[in-house]
Fold each of these.
Amino acid sequence: MSHPPTILIVGGGPAGLSAAAAAAEVGASVMLCEEQPTPGGQLIYRAQPVDTGSGGGAERPEILAKRLVEAALSAGAVLKPGVLVAGRYGDGEILLVGPGRTWTVTPDAVILATGSTDLPFPFPGATSPGVFSCRAVKILLNQWRVLPGRRFAIVGAGADAEDLAVDILLGGGEVVWSGIAPPPLFQTWGRDGVETLSIGPSHFEVDVIAIAVGRQADFALAAMSGAKLGFAPELGGWIPIADDRMQCPEQAIFVAGDAAGIGSVAVAMAEGRLTGLAAAASLGLTGAHVLDEAREAGGAELVWRGDVRRGLEPSHVQPFT
Amino acid sequence: MVEDDQTTAHGAGRITEHALLAPLQTAAIESFFFDGVEVEGRVGEPIAAALLAAGQRIFRTMPEYGDPRGGYCMVGRCSDCLVVVNGVPGVRACMSPVTGGLHVQTQYGLGEFHGDEPDWLQG
């Protein structure tokens, strides 16, 4: 080869950054695009320490983000923050949108580490100013140190909702109500935004309503590229169907992290590493034994995710038919 | 911990102490304008964050019935936070940074374009 094979990584969170370091370390020419101006994904707006699964105790999220960025850069990956991957078209051509310019690239392989989006929860008044997604409240509290109000209601009862409650308390807010009920039981009123929330016969005075009913893989690019989706409730719902090499069959695309199924930061890093090596292996840069090692070192959550994926059938309805 | 003298009617404000997070890198505080009123913001933070910290919750109104919207997703996907910046409508307040002297306005409906015409529209 006159030049090393090229790998484009979409998304600069824990999975994407880990994939970038792993692929670059074995000789791929790696470019990572992250639509936000600061790479780090969910780590950028996380307050609570992260268990990285390496047995060394919990790490502060901003330290972990820096460490992952430095590892990718020193392995030789090129990081492009503020660049959005807008689509993948025929012949694998990819449209990039950056500040003041658009351009296309056609890499030899693509890793989709696009993370997740927060699930909606429509109810009367849910469009009022003062209603935010869970992630939005974390961004305000943790990334920008802004309290959008003092009294919070959290809609949702899972891990995201519990995490958010702690973040609100750490930020100096108050959790007035948290829980889950069928959407028609909720109503909110206010003049310039949220002032009260009723759930059935109960009324609460609140300033902010956070919708924390869970998150879902961001599968848009995968589906656009022809990957089939399956429904896996254990992994947050719709996910692209991928094989043991994190590859979507018949497509030269790989998926890792929340984009491959909702999971922990630790598994996003492990899966990112596995996927980076797998993409590199598909281009002849490394061998199957290295993938086996990465899979074994990835931990129980990684293995379990593979088990869930193996049992998935494509659903009858697909977004792009 | 929030500075009490800086909170608004619904308790919005800035967090000055945090048990887990290191203090923000100090950025210059600059004034910009929202509907002609001076608002303080930290250079580089999103306009949406500065507005919410100042207690401003309405950023735009919807075209058909005029119902109000403020931020929702804070990641540039939902379009609830669109504002007019220096005469240009459709600007995502959650993705656009504060700079000193910016003129930000409520976007009513789709807004009207009063900025400089981009080069690629001419000729």
Note: The mean pLDDT of chain B is 89.
Amino acid sequence: MLVDILTRMSVVVGLMLLAMSVISIGHRRIQYTIDDWRRRVLEALPLAAVVVGVLLLNRAARPRVPDYSWIIGWNATSTIHSIEGSFVTYLHYFGFHELTVYFSFMYVYGYAFLLIFPVVAYFALANTIHLRKLLGAYTFNYVIGLIFYVLVIAVGPRNYFPEMIDVVLYDFQPEIQYVTSEVNENINVFPSLHTSLAATIAIFAYRTREEYPIWWHVGTLLAVSVIISTMYLAIHWAIDVVAGLGLAWLSVWLADHTVGSDHFQKVSVKKYFPGDFSRSPTSRQSDD
Amino acid sequence: MERASESDTTASSRRRFLATAAGLGGAGVSGCTDILQRVTNGGEEQVSLTILAMLADDEDRSSSRIGRELMNHMEAIGISAEVELVTRSELLRSVLFEHDFDCYVGQLPPVERADELYTLFHSQFASEPGWQNPTGYANVAADQYLDDLLREGGNASLEQFLDLFTTEAPIIPICRAEEYRCARVDRLTGWDRNELDRLRGYLGLAGDADEFQMSITSAEPTNNLNPFAAVYQGPWPFQYMIYDSLILPEGSNYQEWMATAVSLDGMTIDVSLRSDLQFHDGESVTAEDVVFTYDLISDITLGQAGSPLAAPVYRWISNLVVDGSGSGQSLELELQQIPDEWWRVLSVPIVPKHIWEDELDDISTDGILDPTVPWGDALGEDIPEIGSGPFKLNDRSEDESLTLNRFEDHFSFADPELPNPSISELNVSVDPNQSVLIDLIDDGTIDMVGEPFETHHLSNLENVSSDVELLPSDRRRVYHIGFNTRERPFSNWRFREAVIGLLDYEWIINEVFHGRADPVATPLADTQLPEDSPYRWQGSHPLVEFYGSPGTNELNAEIAEKAFIDAGYRYDENGNLVIFE
């Protein structure tokens, strides 16, 4: 079951990536990337390794985290509900079948595409600073998110008042839960990692709006759709979304001040290009 | 230059110290004011409580919904209430083991006979773990009626107990929801719909399936098949498939199983065992294993602790059995009382002494008793899941799956009189939700759904193909609100009785259970009560009516408040229900 769904997802997301790459990245950049990829891989490698490490750690820890959570965590759902009430259910008054299809698609496929495309796109830039900051921001999102997951137990609105929500993702396309249950626990809705990562990517899309103007528009639209989908599908509270936005801002700030800091640049880049540091990498290419 | 910065540091740290002191002092002052305020207000505080309910998604929608409605009604009449959603095993841990809760919405295990109320409500069990009086109810008269009920059976003591029970309401029974499993009949037929949570339902079917695919949505059975952990008395049959018992219940009768003959002689049950009994590791099963198991359920510490700690399950049995002895193929169980259907005492799953006896010393009882601890953590590899049942555990992957294989050396194959397993390999997988399962069984990807569907799926279930047989069980579990009678205000029966009126039974049955449940006023099914009993459901609760228009779930706050005032409670000037703290 899981394999079938993952296969289908890979195909769909793969096609989306291909299409967007062709539209957005452009011939010349792809050409330079083919020539220059080794350098860029080396520059991004340490951070990519960190991201992969964090994801693997998360995967290994995931079965045990809920146990610790139940023991030491704060069960926040009733507090969230008493502050927010049933705001999320109001989205359903405007709901209809096609909208549910759109948001369901966004929540799974749109999100996967949103996470992967910037990695590809920024790899296609000669200056790997955006790629490295993005990877750094991913890491911070994940690590801080994990800390919250241990410390805070919260379940989403679809758990709290399931009967008020008729057009829920899992009633509509129940097999999707094979995928989401691999990466989520239903007690980890605060903060919304979907929101924080989507917003992070939107921030970077804004920063690279000159290099990638199309992505600036498409990426932001996707990010907004993903963020709304988390509430429309009653998976997250609005409070989780606000917290997710805060987490995004914080992660990007942290990435700027670590990956982006001079100290970090000197340490990491110098190691691989001891002679080159005097010349900034951007001066080598003319189209960035 | 250095001196200046030094004094700067000292100055700033002094400032910090003063700030902290001021903060603490301020807190201290406000604390004092708080106390003063309390004293001058006469020490009244709003009644404040937390309702434990199960997570709606994948676990139990009904529990959380009832919990929320109760919370709303309580808030409407000035009680500060909130609902805490937890997993089923967390709920059972808080309620059955820690006794740390105010009230909860849950399901009782199936109550087959009235005298099983004994362990549910007798005060003797109030401090024990498991489904033994988790509410802590202690009433001298109730104890007496339960003693009579257990000793003599009959309707008189049952009615007397129910008179008291419905008034004092240590739990408020709500309803018995319809419990449907389903199985494909293109592979096996002859399913007994009332035996699918036990071994009997998987024996003697027509047909023979080599690989049989079952799905469930709860990961609990993949984490722990410990026959002595109360939480795993869930609606799954797996531990009974692995661990055999002396007899198999069959309706109101029994089938000799590991025993060739059983008889009651005075206060003693004599049991003769078959001679061809084997554990899955090849060792023979003898009377010593049986005696060991009965000793174990009476005292899970096997004498290591100061006083015996009974296992949280089979307590009804361990309460009755005072001694067991025997060797080889014969044993005797001495009872302190003879209940109706005395043979029910013989339904304990037997575990291998040679594996359990030595290893138990090293294992903390918390690990065994705590329902949230997986087998691996509690009992480790030192006690493998080896029993003598017709199925043996082949593989177990936590949170994911379970595989049971037919145990070819099981005696049921040697004896033509006995039904044997019709499945050679049972693959159980944990799927994320029940909606998927309906499609999966319809198209034949799975052969069976091994747990009851929630009521909101039942109308979809009715549209499945004719290759799928729907199997409604009569062994239904009672949804109820349970109170911790050790805690105020639930220690006051008047408060509990007043809460009954906050429940609109009609609305709950129709809206929460979609009409697929039968309301009850007792922990028993109406059919288990005498025909003329006033406690059979007559359209509304026999003692307290809903404080509003039944069926609408709209609470008339005035009527409700009056009920609590009549119960002896007060309202303060802010409209809060208060008690003295």
Note: The two ends of chain A are 44 Å apart (CA to CA).
